Amino acid sequence: MAVDSINLEISRGELFSLLGPNGAGKTTTINMLCCLLKPTSGTASIMGYDIMKEPFRVKELIGVSPQDTVLSELLNSRENLSLIGRVHRIGSKELKQRSEELLETVGLTERAKDRVGKFSGGMKRRLNLIMALVHSPEILFLDEPTLGLDPQSRRAIWDYIAELKGKITILLTTHYLEEADVLSDRVGIIDEGKIVALGTPDELKNNISETNTMIISAENLSTEAIDGLRTRDIYTEVDSSSGNLRVLGKDLNFREIMDYLHSQGIVVRSAALEQPTLEDVFLQITGKELRE
Amino acid sequence: MRFSELARRCLKETYRDRLSLGFLLGFPLVFMLLMGVAFAGDTAPEYDLGVLDQDQSQVSQAFVTEALATAFEITSYDDSSQALGDLKAGEISAYITIPQGFGAQVYQNWQGEKENIVLDITYDESDLIVKEQVISMIDAVTRSFARIEVPVTLNASPIHIESEITYIDFIAPGIIIFGLLILIPTSARMMVRDKEKGVLARLLTTPARPWEFISAYSICLFAVGIAQIIIFMVVAVLFGLDIVGSAGLVFLVFTLTALCCIGIGMIISSLTKSENQADPLSWLIAMPLAMLSGCWFSIEFMPSWLQSIANAFPFSHAIEASRSILSRGTGFEAVTSDFLFLVIWTVIVFAAGILLFRRKMPI
């Protein structure tokens, strides 16, 4: 079973990320919401339209950028865009303007008349994305929008998605933690067809981090000073190696530690309370690494 | 209109996919060119035919001099043992015996009464050329002479040969039907490719309705079929095909055949998941059908059980109907049953194709 009872509510204008490893059920969820798959039980509604009862109403509202790049290689970028636009019954004038706008945004204007078959992977990916936007959908499904892209193209797509944020509702799936972290209003962590954690990226991180870590880099670290820290119960772990100090504890107080080190006459070069990443969240909740 | 947009896309892709397009139009053309060059000419290759005229009527003599002589080099015999000797010696390819009463039988056909014409043909069984060509030519010449399928409404006619049946006249309808049979793999490929590459899934997230997809594919493939028919017919005419009957009627036969093939392709595309599955499967269906239906040689010499199988499919009927319209000038009445067969098949495969395609759609 790819997806096992997901209960989820996404607000209008929100950017929601489904984060999970391959095979977790992200694409299956999207396919059900796009009316490509019938759920064996249950349903969902999009802007008040039930996906089982009024699929065509739903389809008028959505734009989908599939995980696999789906384009017609024998058509050029404009023709690909206008196919989707016209099937959505967009008027010629509006379609033309919208296409130019989108091509410009993703930097494909100069290649607009070239057949897509000649494009690089990154260019195809960008076109794949804007094809979901040509009819100005109210809801956008982005299934792994940056899968297999080089960092530069990925950054460009992130920038563009960030621009859309707040204007339309976006459901994004990804297995890139950074992507979910940077872009999302809320993240749902999905594993084996179930939502195992849900919240804003910060909420998720804070929830798991009962223990904080502080990393300090200092000159003249003395054993006495370190032992002084070790005697205090609130620090569960104190490690030091070649001028670096790692302090773990519940509710670490940055100021307190810094004051203590100063009082010991230690010169601190840098100090930081380490933020847990979504990777830590994922690891803790599911007990597995994201990229298996 | 959404479906016209979808159809336009299919057409553009078909037109731009030069390799497939070349194959689609080129394969049958190559066949026709080869056959045309190999056997072209105003008349068929000259075969020596022995004639033993036991009827000795005016009609039978006319049959020999005005019908058979147009297609064969004639040697007349008075008794069969002499003819048999020459056949064994390889002097003649075959000999026919015109039995007594032949003239009367033909005359009755001219009067509009259907009467079987009996001719005895003796030939060497191992001689495949005779089997395939000489006998079909005799058959065609005789039918044409006796006007077996000419409707009753025509008045008694004088002895008149409508056209010389050349080899291209005989072979062209089969090759054209073969060309149309290639629409089976073509349509299966077009539809299954969209499914395999996710194009269909992507388009299914738009408000386009299932019927719009089906009509888009059908329109596109139908246009391809019409283009094929026109090209094949023009080339055949350039190679010396005589269109004796109604060109419109024969066009209709080919059009129905094309639709039937598109329907079969649609069924295959629904039953398969990828081009790799659909392609061999559709060729596995198209090629035996072509052979069985008599695209390349006459099916009259196949075992009768095989002929019954062949006749269960619409394509042998399509070849028979088009051949008879093209070279014998028969009207609609004479090919009604072939027509009906084609129409019924087309309706059935199309209905099945649409149902299967629709069933595979999620919503």
Rg calc of chain B: 24 Å
The count of β-strands of chain A is 12
The description of the largest β-sheet of chain B is: 4 strands, mixed
Pair with the biggest interface: A-B, 26 and 22 residues
How does this model look, in words?
The complex is a heterodimer of chains A (292) and B (363). Chain A has 292 residues and is of the alpha/beta class. Chain A is built from 11 helices and 12 strands. In chain A, strand 7 and strand 8 (194-199) form a beta hairpin. Chain A starts with 14 loop residues before the first strand and ends in a 6-residue tail after the last helix. The model of chain A has no long low-confidence stretch (mean pLDDT 85). With 363 residues, chain B is α/β, with parallel strands linked by helices. Chain B has helices spanning 2-16, 18-39, 58-71, 80-89, 102-110, 128-146, 167-181, 183-197, 199-204, 210-238, 247-271, 275-293, 304-312, 314-328, 336-359; strands at 47-53, 72-77, 94-98, 120-123. Chain B has a 4-stranded mixed beta sheet, with helices on both faces. Chain B is elongated and about 80 Å long. Chain B starts with a helix and ends with a helix. The model of chain B is unreliable at 149-163 (pLDDT under 50). The A-B interface holds A 34-38, 55-56, 59-60, 62, 64, 66, 68, 70, 72, 74-75, 79, 83-84, 86-89, 115, 131 and B 2, 5-6, 9, 12-13, 16-17, 197-199, 201-209, 362-363.
